[in-house]
Each structure stands twice: as structure tokens, then as C-alpha cells.
Specification:
Strand order of the largest sheet: 2-1-3-4
Protein name: DUF1450 domain-containing protein
Strand content: 15-25%
Largest sheet: 4 strands, mixed
Organism: Brevibacillus gelatini
Radius of gyration: 11 Å
Pfam families: DUF1450
Helix content: 25-40%
Order of helices and strands: EHHEHEEH
Structural class: alpha+beta
């Protein structure tokens, strides 16, 4: 099963590029850098990504990565 993870480009402008690079290491992950993900303003407040269409939020990049890894690990 392929897991789709979408990052907001505005959210990535900060310090989240490393999160994206870590997630890329997992098998069966399709990373998508879309335009606006229609979560207006959230990208300015907290790190987030859409995992298979579900909004995953962290207080910082590490927490976002931990939550994404948890989702990916549970799927295997």
C-alpha cells in the first residue's frame, strides 16, 4: 500500500525540510508538495502534513515527524 503524505509549501519554508527528508526514507511513501492544502492559516501556526488525507499536526517538527512515523509504522 502506498501512503500519501502532502506538505504545504508555506509550511516547508521554515525548518520542516528535514522532516520531509526523514519521511522520504520510508518504503511505499509518495510525497506530494502541493499548492495550498486549504488548511488556511494552519501552516503559519504549526507544522502539519496530510497523511492519506488526514491532517496530522505537531507542536514542532520533531513531534510532526514522530506522529507521521507512528502512522507509517502502524500501517506495516
Amino acid at each position: 500500500m502506498v501512503h500519501t503524505i502532502k506538505f504545504c509549501p508555506c509550511n516547508l519554508q521554515g525548518s520542516l525540510e528535514w522532516v520531509r527528508n526523514e519521511v522520504r526514507k520510508f518504503p511505499d511513501v509518495e510525497l506530494i508538495d502541493g499548492r495550498c492544502l486549504n488548511y488556511c492559516g494552519q501552516c503559519l501556526e504549526k507544522p502539519f502534513a496530510l497523511y492519506n488525507g488526514k491532517n496530522i499536526v505537531g507542536n514542532d517538527g520533531q513531534e510532526l515527524l514522530d506522529r507521521l512515523v507512528e502512522k507509517l509504522s502502524a500501517a506495516h
